[in-house]
Amino acid sequence: MYGDNCLSRAQIFRWYAQFKSGVEMNEDEARPGRPFSVRNEGLIAKVRKRIQEERCVTVRLMADEFDVNRETIRKILLEDLGKRKVATRFVPHALSDDQRHERVQYAKNIIKTALRNKNFLNLIVAEDETWYFCHDLTTKSQIAEWKSPASPKAKKVRLQKSKVKTMLVCFYDSKGIIHHEFVPEDKLSLEVFI
Question: What is the pLDDT of residue 17?
Fold first, then answer.
């Protein structure tokens, strides 16, 4: 009749048995001491040492290792140690100092030419090609590390090409893509397009 707004039948029977035995209070009895907490300095020190040994360790693994729940480990990492899980940023390749310097010089030359000739950027047709790379066996979440907010971001270079020899060639100008084409496997030389 009253639905969820009334006592359950089992609770009524428990209270009836208590009143019948002489107990007239329906409040919880006082319990001695403070509630037990596993989030203490000893556990915090263990977690700090563990992530210094292996920065990619997961919350679940540490919870199993220290026999506490995952939320306790998560709170220690975030609140007590000030850590956050940061995934590595993938970059297509790593440039040497000479390559970086050369790219800066090219960019400066293009800017100078563009300032002299206002129509210069509209005359440029660029080409780019993309290879399909195979996936690394480790995922971004597996190589994510616990770091402090001030820590530098890590990078991971993708070098390995896929066994599939498919390339997308794209030509574009200032207005957008002019032409794009998937290069057949038997004609991987770009000389066909030049």
Answer: 85
**In which element (H, E) is residue 146 found?**
strand 145-147
CA distances from 161 to 133, 164, 166, 189 (A): 4, 8, 10, 16
Please give the structure tokens belonging to residue 119.
């129509």
pLDDT < 50 regions, the chain: 134-135, 160-162
Q: Coil, helix or strand for 192?
A: helix
- Coil/strand/helix, residue 133: strand
SS3 content of the chain, % helix, strand, coil (to 5): 40, 20, 40
Per-residue model confidence (pLDDT) at position 162: 45
Say whether 17 sits in a helix, a strand or coil: helix
Do residues 62 and 47 lie in contact, with contact meaning Cβ atoms separated by under 8 Å? yes
Residue 174, pLDDT score: 86
Which residue is listed with tokens 């693994």?
Answer: 61
